Amino acid sequence: MYKPILIKSPITIIFGGYLGSLMFMFIVTAVGNLEATLFGKNFQLKLPEIILSMAISLIAAGMVHRICFTTCLIFSLITIYYMNKLSQKTYVAAVPAAAPVKSRRHK
Fold it and tell me: Which UniProt keywords apply (predicted)?
């Protein structure tokens, strides 16, 4: 719908790739929420869901312009890196340190 506007200049083409990466982020979030609702809170996204979401957003960005496809890929990889970093920081429980085991052998 906004293809003529997004391909007017190089900056708007890059912005089109950024919009594609936002779409990727929203699709990943929607799929993750759907799976959490259907399969329980402890269910995590796996690689196939990420690849499917990436493919959908890349196809949509590629329909606008070839460079939108490339910038969408780059921005989406950066987005998934920071989403994973934030998720690890938020949801990973701290593992208590193991206490040293004392042996009962006498020398």
Answer: Membrane, Transmembrane, Transmembrane helix
* pLDDT at 63 > cutoff 70: yes
The helix (run of H) or strand (run of E) holding residue 59 is: helix 47-64
**Phi, psi dihedrals of residue 96, rounded to the nearest 5°:** -65, 145
d(CA 51, CA 47): 6
Instruction: Please give the single-letter amino acid code of residue 64.
Output: V
Query: Dihedral, CA atoms, 45, 46, 47, 50, nearest 10 degrees?
Result: -20
Per-residue pLDDT of 3-36, as tens digits, reads: 777 777 888 888 889 999 999 999 999 999 999 9
